[in-house]
């Protein structure tokens, strides 16, 4: 299957339309304060054409005598197989990702705020539950002013039954106050500033940068990306934390794949490479997957 067919240009187009001048942000350097992240998960947006030009460039450089960096031996085959298995784009993340459930008819600032909120809600929460909570918030009025005027009790009721609801109410309130007072009602446009918000860690920050600002600053590694990367042998050594997996992936995965890999693998993890009982028997990677062949385990 053509990879370009897998990814439509929806998110990119939407983001560009919304960004206007605000999209001209400087790329974020990535010295992260990986503190506050407490297990967000993600509704991810993705979709773009993927080419192999970067890989050609790497090969040419290697032919000129430069040292070849480590990469998983059969990653291209494995990745193509995942593209094929994901061709229908019918996983929960495809219809309930963070940019899909955010209000695309709202102003750019409100849209970005909702992207941030939807990712905060998605931590430890199924996409269906996050989507339903966002729908209730939008009906209530999901903008900074209105959320700040809403009591904690009502906010908790609106987002119920998302995981860690009480803590998320606190994060949403404190974050909304910061956005109002420090960022003129918008969200920050760097990874560092996003990570300084309550409850926001590197994974969420990279996803926000991608979905809200159309900026690729790093790979958003959630529990699905972490698990599948380890099963497929995409980390040189097994990793025991998503943040370590992010670093390991960014060391070899060509940058043009960074934007899309989260969405691709999350859907794959929701449908085939399940956390418990992965469907290896129907997976196209079963012959070339270290986990399926007993060479990798989920235990680190
Ligand atoms: S063979 Fe099994 S463990 Fe490997 S990618 Fe496929 S579903 Fe996941």
UniProtKB/TrEMBL annotation:
SMART domains: ENDO3c, FES. It catalyses: 2'-deoxyribonucleotide-(2'-deoxyribose 5'-phosphate)-2'-deoxyribonucleotide-DNA = a 3'-end 2'-deoxyribonucleotide-(2,3-dehydro-2,3-deoxyribose 5'-phosphate)-DNA + a 5'-end 5'-phospho-2'-deoxyribonucleoside-DNA + H(+). Coiled coil: none annotated. Residues 121-271 form the HhH-GPD domain. One of its GO terms (molecular function) is 4 iron, 4 sulfur cluster binding. One of its GO terms (cellular component) is mitochondrion. Residues 23-32 have a biased composition (Polar residues). Its cofactor is [4Fe-4S] cluster. GO terms for biological process: base-excision repair, AP site formation. It is found in: Nucleus; Mitochondrion. This is Endonuclease III homolog. It comes from Sinanodonta woodiana.
